Inverse folding.
């Protein structure tokens, strides 16, 4: 029983990372109807920027805030330069764009910071949380940050005019323009927010997986699995999906013989396929009621 | 009287296909004008060209300002509300959110709140359903919502694309009564595109008839309604 609780708690802790990544995935999906395959690499790059800032002597939280701002601006810049011209292009062109971005960001990071593994600090410390051996303060902090982020996003989308305009632009661009919304700018804003959220995920996960250009490869797949499981249209679903995937992955690794650590990743992929076949809208994807 | 909207030699294209062949017309401030014509005559295209949603040439001036080269959202920001065909309802959002979206370009939040209340008094059914997903409303209710959403802009000019489409005759009459009231009381200039010529001519004071992208008839709505030749050859009743 203790093993079980242990694994569930550890699963929730890693799930927080997936949840963060899934949030970023959902943000972009909402804005442009595509999955951004380069999301993980962008998050990795942001994390390197924060690391570099700290190397230059900026304290942790200063680097954190600066990185958020830089990532936000960087996301907008990428959208304006690369994906705005592709807005009317076919899906495959966009996919090629994402993959190009993936490769470019990955190699540029390697070029600047090389591929050796780097230590990354945690702001929460790594002592046992509340005296419990099951979960560290860093993991607890990660869960807290994810939930806080979700609440902030919820307030933004539900109670601010900008959030309402972004939702309108995402659901019906033409109607949104007809009420005077600059939809192209809303998409850029979505990219900025998604990139900033991704940078938070990167900075939280780096103390766990260590910092290097390929750190996000596996994480992004889990993030996709979480987003698909929760429903690509629901930020809340993405977060719950993230925790579920984290727990599921840990339990499968512990209890299903032969799975162990190596086969955890295929489990995430199997989960994506299962959800898409059985319940394409995901657990929390908003069922759209329509009169016929 | 000066024209509020002046359209000169408007030509519009869908790819290689030309849909409008040099359309010219003018709307007087405070008027209620209807644009009539059969399917495919170019009525919808005319409205879309005003809002720059289709490639076009020619000159369109609104209160002396040229609309050419302005993005759709910037045309709207001048005070032109466009209720498109199919109503453009944000179906996954609530009725109230739809109304708020209508006023999204406005900064006067107190007046927006009172305007929403005003819309609820115009259209009581919207108040009953204000927390409901807009997609669950009936066709008539959605059309009411679309008109209310357009009014939330506090427009100077309202463009309506076949508001009667798919609605029961009684509901159409109600809707047209409301449009007349908006035109008189709120001083909103209205251009309504219709296939239901008989009703539209009862409502409007000015009328234009278009056929295959050209204006073939214009004048007082009553005169056109009384002209049997026009009725038979162009309006089909």
């Amino acid at each position: 029983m203790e093993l079980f609780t242990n694994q569930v708690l550890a699963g929730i802790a890693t799930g927080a990372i997936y949840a963060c990544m899934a949030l970023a995935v959902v943000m972009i999906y909402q804005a442009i109807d595509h999955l951004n395959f380069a999301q993980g690499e962008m998050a990795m790059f942001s994390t390197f920027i924060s690391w570099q800032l700290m190397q230059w002597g900026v304290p942790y939280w200063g680097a954190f805030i600066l990185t958020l701002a830089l990532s936000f601006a960087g996301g907008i810049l990428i959208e304006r330069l690369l994906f705005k011209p592709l807005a009317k292009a076919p899906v495959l062109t966009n996919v090629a764009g994402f993959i190009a971005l993936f490769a470019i960001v990955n190699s540029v990071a390697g070029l600047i910071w090389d591929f050796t593994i780097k230590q990354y600090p945690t702001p929460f410390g790594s002592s046992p949380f509340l005296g419990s051996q099951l979960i560290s303060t860093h993991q607890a902090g990660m869960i807290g940050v994810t939930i806080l982020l979700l609440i902030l996003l919820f307030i933004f989308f539900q109670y601010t005019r900008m959030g309402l305009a972004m939702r309108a632009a995402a659901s019906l661009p033409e109607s949104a323009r007809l009420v005077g919304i600059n939809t192209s700018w809303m998409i850029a804003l979505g990219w900025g927010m998604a990139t900033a959220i991704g940078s938070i995920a990167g900075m939280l996960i780096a103390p766990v997986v260590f910092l290097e250009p390929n750190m996000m490869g596996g994480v992004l797949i889990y993030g996709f699995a979480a987003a698909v499981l929760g429903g690509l249209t629901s930020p809340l679903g993405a977060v719950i999906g993230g925790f579920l995937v984290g727990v599921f992955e840990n339990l499968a690794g512990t209890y299903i013989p032969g799975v162990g650590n190596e086969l955890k990743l295929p489990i995430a992929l199997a989960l994506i396929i299962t959800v898409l076949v059985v319940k394409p809208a995901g657990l929390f994807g908003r069922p759209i009621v329509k009169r016929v | 009287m000066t024209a509020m909207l002046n359209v000169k030699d408007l030509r519009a294209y869908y790819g290689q296909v030309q849909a409008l062949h040099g359309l010219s017309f003018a709307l007087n401030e405070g008027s209620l004008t209807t644009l009539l014509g059969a399917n495919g005559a170019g009525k919808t295209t005319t409205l879309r060209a005003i809002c720059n949603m289709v490639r076009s040439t020619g000159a369109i001036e609104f209160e002396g300002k040229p609309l050419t080269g302005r993005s759709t959202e910037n045309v709207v920001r001048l005070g032109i509300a466009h209720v498109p065909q199919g109503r453009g309802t944000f179906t996954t959002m609530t009725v109230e959110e739809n109304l708020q979206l209508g006023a999204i370009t406005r900064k006067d939040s107190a007046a927006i709140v009172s305007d929403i209340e005003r819309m609820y008094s115009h259209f009581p059914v919207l108040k009953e359903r204000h927390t409901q997903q807009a997609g669950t409303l009936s066709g008539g209710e959605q059309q009411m919502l679309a008109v209310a959403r357009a009014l939330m802009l506090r427009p100077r000019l309202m463009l309506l694309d076949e508001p009667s489409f798919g609605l029961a005759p009684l509901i159409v009459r109600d809707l047209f009564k409301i449009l007349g009231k908006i035109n008189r009381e709120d001083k909103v200039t209205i251009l309504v595109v219709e296939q239901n010529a008989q009703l539209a001519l009862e409502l409007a004071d000015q009328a234009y008839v278009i056929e295959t992208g050209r204006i073939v008839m214009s004048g007082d709505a009553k005169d056109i309604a009384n002209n049997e030749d026009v009725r038979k050859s162009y309006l089909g009743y």
Summary: The two ends of chain A are 51 Å apart (CA to CA).
